[in-house]
Design brief:
This protein is of the alpha/beta class and about 210 residues long. It is built from 8 helices and 8 strands, in the order H-E-H-H-E-E-E-H-E-H-E-H-E-H-E-H. Strand 5, helix 5 and strand 6 form a beta-alpha-beta unit. It starts with a helix and ends with a helix.
C-alpha cells in the first residue's frame, strides 16, 4: 500500500507541475502576456506556461488549452471564469503622425487613414462618437488587429486600440496616443480555466 500511495502521490505531483497552455488572441499574447510571462511564472510558483496565440477567427472550441483569455461571450462548459478587465480604446499612430494630429485636434482625423481590423467591428464608430467628430478620410480594412497595428507603426495610418495591451509598443516609441483622454469602451476580457488542471488561486496569481 505504501508503494501504491507513493506512486500515486508522485504522479499527482507530476500532473500538477506539467506545462500549462495559456491561449489568447495574437495581439494580447505577443504584446501583453509574453513580456510579463517570466514574472508571471515566478508569481505562480515557477509553473511552466506555454502561450498559444490564436486568431479571433480560429476554432477556439476545439483548441487545446488550460487557461484562456477571451474577448467574446463563449465559455467552455464546466470551466470556471472571471472578468479581468474591459479594454479602453483610443486613437494610436506612429509618434510623428500622432504629433501632427495633436496640432490639428481630433477633427484632423477626418483627413487621415484609419486601419480597422475585421475582428474589431464597431470600435472605430465608438471612438469617433466619443470624440465628437466625423468619419476619417479613409478607412482601410485589415483581417486582424496585429496587422492593422503593424501598418500604423509603418506610418501608413492610425488605429483605434487598447493602449494597455500595446503598452510595450508605446514605451518603445513605436506608437503614441495623441488624444489619450478620449476613450471608448472595448471588449470585456474574461479568463476561463479548467478547474481539473489548475486552481483558482493559481490563476489569480498568474493574471
Amino acid at each position: 500500500l505504501q508503494t501504491i500511495r507513493g506512486g500515486w502521490e508522485a504522479a499527482s505531483r507530476k500532473g500538477q507541475r506539467r506545462v500549462l497552455t495559456l491561449a489568447a488572441n495574437a495581439t494580447l499574447s505577443v504584446h501583453w502576456i509574453m513580456p510579463r510571462l517570466v514574472d508571471a511564472e515566478v508569481a505562480a510558483g515557477g509553473r511552466a506556461i506555454r502561450v498559444s496565440a490564436l486568431h479571433t477567427t480560429d476554432d477556439w472550441q476545439h483548441a487545446q488549452f488550460d487557461i484562456g483569455i477571451l474577448r467574446n461571450a463563449w465559455k467552455p462548459e464546466g470551466w470556471e471564469h472571471r472578468e479581468i478587465g474591459v479594454e479602453r480604446l483610443t486613437l494610436l499612430a506612429r509618434p510623428d503622425r500622432a504629433e501632427a494630429l495633436r496640432r490639428t485636434g481630433p477633427a484632423g482625423l477626418e483627413a487621415e487613414t484609419v486601419f480597422v481590423a475585421d475582428t474589431r467591428g464597431g470600435e472605430l464608430e465608438s471612438w469617433i462618437e466619443a470624440a465628437g467628430i466625423g468619419r476619417p478620410g479613409a478607412i482601410r480594412p485589415a483581417p486582424h488587429f496585429y496587422i492593422a497595428a503593424q501598418a500604423a507603426m509603418a506610418g501608413q495610418g492610425c488605429i483605434i486600440g487598447p493602449p494597455l495591451v500595446l503598452a510595450d509598443l508605446i514605451e518603445q516609441g513605436r506608437l503614441a496616443a495623441p488624444f489619450a483622454d478620449i476613450t471608448a469602451k472595448g471588449a470585456t476580457l474574461t479568463a476561463v480555466f479548467n478547474p481539473d488542471r489548475c486552481k483558482a488561486a493559481f490563476v489569480e496569481k498568474l493574471l
